[in-house]
Request: fold
Amino acid sequence: MTTKKANIKKICGWILALTLIFICQTQPVKTILTLPSHVNIIDGNPHYLPFAYPNILNIGLTSKDIVNVATFDEKEINNKIKSGFSFEPITTGEAKLQVKLLGIIPIQTININVLPQLNFIAGGHTLGVYLHTDGILVTGLMKMNNGGSSISPAEKAGIRTGDYILKVNGYEIINFEDLEVIINREAIKNTLLTLTIRKNESVQTVNVKAIKSKIDGKYKIGVYGKNSISGIGVLTYIDPVTKTFGALGHPVSDPDSNSNFKFRAGSITRASVTSIEKSLPGIPGQKNAVAVNRHNLAGSINKNGQYGIYGDILDNAFLTEKTYPVALSSSIQEGKATILTVIDDMKIEEFEIKIVRTTRNYSGDTRGMVIEITDKRLLEYTGGIVQGMSGSPIIQNGNIIGAVTHVFLNNPKRGYGCYIENMVYESELLNIQLRQISTNIWQKRRSR
Reply:
């Protein structure tokens, strides 16, 4: 009898499991699982999210003064009849749409952001990029001879590649020469040193016992490091209202420590392309460029983010009259587009590309779309996407939609691009605009 009950339970379990597998393979459930966590809308532009909307779902909306949300059963979108959600923006702001099963079980919360219509000056300029750290970035660990054994005192104390050394015995470190001088000076008094370091986002202190080098007689702790990094990239956009910019489309990373470069000061300059090493399958090419008037800064950098670098434009020559409306990822179409970039000297040119694929990538990655270079002249010069092309703005239907970010190593004609909306959010441009509007209003009132 017990065996019979156990068999019945086992059969019921299998039936339940198979039923769940069957349900999960149905189109409505598949669609539910692919609902985005974020939807961005431009104020004044209705937005439709195609979605096989089953009757067992209910929706609830916060902040109904920001956007109207409704479901539709049949609507023509891109020449196809579809069902889903319709969003009618009322004003700029944020709202949340909660999707529930049978009105009880939460399935997904969609964060809705209604943005103002932004218009950017498109970039394409080649830039020299310069960042200086706060302290010293540890780029490597050096073994030292210590009485027959080989150790790195810093490594023994828990310091790793990618950490930052900020102070030694309370003395601030500005460059690697400072680090060597202060370590040697303090270790003559006492070889046990107290270092203030930043590990990830945490500032902490560690004790390191310095060792006297048998080569030069100076005390060392067994680290390699740097306090600055430089390279070239491309300006993506300038906001003419705030005179702020975004560039690169990806973070500035240190190749030695394989980490995003944390900095205390940064700048950009104009640069001139002197030559190009063509990309080949398996071998990425690169732009070679030199800074033009290094001491005449084009802008200052205030953020090194996941989608690029951001800051203030200091050279008004960048502020041209022509602007492009910012288009969101939801309006991007697979097919023809162009990029703006430089392949010779400082001349910005427009080249044809194809958007091969887009994804619902609203956050988290710089690979929102797959692009392919189709312009014969650009392919002749570069072989495809090359290093130093990152940040080249992508234009489609008269709108700025994103930036070139990466090259496919085995097929350099293709690569990735990020969405311009991700750069806008990360730059906190909307907050800067709001602060500037408030300041202008206050100044006008004060002058009355």
In short: The first strand starts at residue 38 and ends at 42.
